[in-house]
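Problem: given the chain below (169 residues), write out its structure.
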Amino acid sequence: MASDSERKDAALESIFRELGQEDESARTAARDRLVAQGEAAIPTLVAALCDDDPQVRFQAAKGLETLKDPRTAASLTRAIADVDADVQWVAGEALGSLGDAAVVPLLDGVIHHSGSHHFRQGAHHALKLLIDAGHEDLTPVQDALDGAAPPYEAPVAASRVLMQRMKSA
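Solution.
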C-alpha cells in the first residue's frame, strides 16, 4: 500500500508531466495546481527548470515566481542563463521577486558565469528589478554589464559589492 508521501509524489509527478502539454491553458492550469501544493511543489518546480522543453521550464519559473521561496534563488540564478529568452525573462522576474535572498546567489553567478551572453542578459534583468526594489548598491554591477567589456568588468564589480556587503554585515 502506498504511503501518503508516495501518493503525493505521484500526484506531483502527474501534474509535472502536464506542464509540457501543447495547450497553453492546460500548461497554466497544471502550473496553478502545482503552486497550490505550496512548499511541497518546490522540488518538482526546481527540477522542471532543467527540462528539455522550454515551455516546461517557463511554467516552472512562473510557479517559483508565485511561491517566492528564498531557497530557490540558486536554481533561479542558473535559470537566468537559459537559451530561451522567455524562460530567461521569467526566471529573472522570479529572482527579482526574492529581494535580499537573490542578491548573493546572483552576484556569485555574475562572478562565475559572466562569460555567458545568456547569463549576462538574465542577470541584467534581475539586477534592474532588485535595484528598482531598493538595492541601489547593485548599480555598479549593472553598469559593468552595460559596459564595454562585461565578461571582465562585471565579475570585478560583483566581487566589490559582495565584499562591501560583507563589511557592512
